[in-house]
Amino acid sequence: IVIIKYLALNNTVAITPSTTSVYTVSGTNSIGCISSPITTTVSVGPIPTLAVNNGTICIGQSFTIQPTGGSTYTIQGGNTVVTPSITSTYTIAGTSSLGCTSPTILTSTVSVNPLPTVSISGTTALCTGQSINLTASGANTYTWSTSSNAGSISVAPTANTTYTLSGTSAAGCISAAAASLAVTVYSLPVVSITGTNALCSGQSVTLTANGANSYSWSQGSTNPTVTLTPSLTSNYTVIGKSNAGCTGNSTTITVTVRSE
Q1: Neighbours of 225 (CB within 10 A)
Q2: What is the pLDDT of residues 92-147, one digit of tens each?
Q3: Tens digits of residue pLDDT in 207-238
Q4: How far is residue 246's CA from residue 241's CA, in Å, rounded to a whole number?
């Protein structure tokens, strides 16, 4: 609505043009004299038609609200760049370059997806030469420090190793912290046998195993030291196991029996 006031007669008229219009007015004074007509142009600017984007982000990311259709905008919160921690809705009002304000208030919804929390499960200790399986959980896809992208990997480390893992959710959000698992590798025991390796028939020999925590002899004994009375030249083999349960390679001694 535009108010046009004719000052000489102190009269006003309210008009509501829908398009730019020209209005002409003349006045008559108290003695009947008519003034020259004057004109006024009322420009009618269009009401802006606004539009705005919605979006989806991961926690910690920012989103840019991009309204269109107006010249200036008023955005709830005052910024076009927002970093919500939960799904949030922002209101937008717009004004054209002619100062016309849109009667429609728009909303921009920013959906916020959580970051995945990943973990690794699997054996944390093994013996040299063994392999173990490590399994990832908590995300949709994974990246291991071994460069594998599988959900489960088989590894055979030769030394103590820490494996790390990051994950990406189905929404494309990457875990904020990597998971890690330290794997300890125990060495195999190196077993040796001490004792006489030659004797006469009817004599006994004492053999002692060294280098491990427990032993298994080929003749069935589990003692570190065995006393034997071979009747002929014989081979004796022992296998040792470490405190960590690792079994090393066997070692063999040949005991020669001399006849009289």
Answers
A1: 14
A2: 999 998 888 999 999 999 999 999 999 999 999 999 999 999 999 999 999 999 99
A3: 999 999 999 999 999 999 999 999 999 999 99
A4: 5
Strand-strand pairing, 205-210 and 192-194: antiparallel
Distance CA 133, CA 155 (A): 6
Q: Are 84 and 110 in contact (CB under 8 A)?
A: yes
Least Cα distance to 133 among 118, 150, 147, 117 occurs for 150
Q: Which residue has the tokens 């535009």?
A: 2
CA distances from 47 to 43, 71, 76, 256 (A): 13, 11, 21, 112
Strands 198-200 and 251-258: parallel
Buried-state track 118-151, b at ≥16 Cβ within 10 A, e below 16 = bebebeeebbeeeeeebebbebebbbbeeebeee
Max Cα separation, the chain? 168
How many helices (H) and strands (E) are present in the chain, helices listed first? 0, 24
- CB count within 10 Å of CB 198 equals 12
Tell me phi and psi for residue 227, to 5 degrees: -115, 125
Q: What is the pTM of this model?
A: 0.72
